[in-house]
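ok posting inputs for the zinc ion job
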Amino acid sequence: MSKAPRKVIITCAVTGAIHTPTMSDALPYKAEDIARQAIEAAEAGAAVLHLHARHPQTGAVSIDQEHFRAFLPVIHASTDAVVNLSTGGSLTNTVAERTAPALRFSPEMCSLNMGSMNFAMHPLAQRYKTWKFDWEEPYLRESDGYIFRNTFRDIAQAAHALEPHGIKFEHECYDVGQLYNLKFCMDTGLFKAPVFIQFVLGILGGIGADLDNLAFMKRTADKLFGKDYQWSVLGAGASQMNLAVAAAAMGGHVRVGLEDSLFITRGKLAASNAQQVRKVRALLEDLGHEIATPDEARAILALKG
Ligand code: KMH
Ligand code: ZN
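and the output
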């Protein structure tokens, strides 16, 4: 009896919140560019589109519903790819602000970040060399060191608010401890199996991007969740393609996109999100993997559809 081949889901994270338009001309921030790049990424083989909104003038990350409304209908009209809205917001947004777009648009998926952490890109964190320490200043400001707050209370608040919408979470786990946070939340009834976990490797403040760490994340998740979960990997920066290929070989799904890396190969900026999707797809297909369509991704992840 022939067993149907496993399909690999490619997620494309189109723009994110952290990279700035000054870093690459390809990074989309205007609604029409986010829509066009998302549609092209779907045409190239991304079954899932992980989306943030940005301010169309400044390029800063935005949780303004109008900024989402400016691209979501265009994407829905041209592709049947699964839409996954970020609940990450910016490092200064409250949980209520961060979850508002997902509550308003009720997408099939949204991200949910599984722990509080330092969160930085290496060039930004290097500013520590020139930091001045003012003992009188307010306790929490973004410029104080890029704290990404996701306490158990924050996670529960977002989960309770989003629960009636039947949205599948992309549980973003930036370190092994966050897998235990997820397990704790499951044990206390906040989330039910099967969960979909995004292993995030290579963010400064989280676990480093190498194969040892990927294997450790996978082993730990197997120990905690048994066989009843789906997982994917995003390697931030230079590790993006290597970790994607390794993840597929280990039975996982993959995430690429300009949110996670601005490059197509070492030292060369990517021209678009679609270019990264085409590259990862070609690498995976060369190795014999089959790529999931949006409907196959819906079935694998048990989405509300
Ligand atoms: N805004 C960030 C610090 C996600 O998409 O959920 C990370 C983030 C992840 O936004
Ligand atoms: Zn994101």
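notes: The pocket of (5S)-5-amino-3-OXO-hexanoic acid (ligand 1) is lined by residues 17, 86-89, 91, 111, 113, 119, 148, 172 (CB under 6 Å). The chain has one domain: 7-128+149-301.
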